Amino acid sequence: MKLSRTTDYRPRPPRRGLTALLCDRSVQLAIIGWLGCNVVVLAVAGDALPFDWPAVATQTPAGRLLDANLALAEVLLLTVLTFWLTRKRTPPRLADRAPERSVAARETLLLLLYGAGALGLDFLLGRLAGWHPFGLHLAGSIYGTHDHVSPAESIAWAAYNLLVYAVIPLLWFRRRYSTEALNLRSGNRRADTVLIGAVLLVESLVQVATLAPRIFELTPGQFALGVPLTFTLYLAGAVLPAMIFIYAILVPRFLRLTGSPATTVILGGLTYTALHIWDAWTVFTSPGDTALSIVFLLLTYFAPGMFKTVLTVRTGNAWVHVWGYHALVPHTLIDAPHMVHVFHLR
């Protein structure tokens, strides 16, 4: 009697690395969304963009689109560098720093609603004072602006953002969670310092090579006053608010709710983008201009917001992105001449 062969039904090994990443639904949606943003620019922009961007006034829409895609490529390379430098580290258990799922969902929803309400109040207070709305960036940041920005507006912007997005959320969550649970304590200071130095060096070289920042044109007196002033104002008005609101509080909860580092990174990028909705260059006076404003907000901030999340997820330390990829570069490097102009430094 002939015996039939038994079939070996050994399960397939789980996908790893890049293959697993590209098979992640959230990553696929992010890629489609990014490509969609490119299509919108090519279809809607025409010969010129409607934005007041003195720093890149001579560039065509296609040129700005190319820059955005090159910036994404740089962020991806920095991400590879980050993974390589942290490959021997024990991954922090960020999800365990968030509460149980139901509590994390409630806290996440309430914080996002709080952020949306704060953005609405930002707009009203800025307009009532005769200023630009208080977004995460002061008017004139990165791209420059032809609009006048006063010292009073700059100080009020920094104070308001620090209070609303950093101090109040931190005081509220610190009542129940430790500094470690809020990603505010380093688990490996030496490794974090090496990572900060590597990212800061690479990003500084890229910014200097591609943007030719005007900080090197400042006089010694302007440099001595403008650099610490810029560092202090942007630390208060942009860096610490983003760090506390997103990377200290929301990121562990995103990871608890999704169970996916990739999805968490994407949500971090989207949240970071949303906090810039009132950037002074955005235009919402027509459907086409509104579409281009939203698209260029995504093209400008989504990738940096994702990389800040990568640094937090890989280290468990929200301070890493502050020193490696936010406070010094780009803001102090790029925006010091703007602050010199605003405060009439000589």
Automatic annotation (TrEMBL):
Origin: domain of life: Bacteria
Keyword annotations of the record: Membrane, Transmembrane, Transmembrane helix
Keyword Mitochondrion found: no
Chain segments annotated as transmembrane: 21-45, 65-87, 108-134, 154-173, 194-216, 231-250, 257-278, 290-307
Name this polypeptide is given: Uncharacterized protein
Organism: Nonomuraea harbinensis
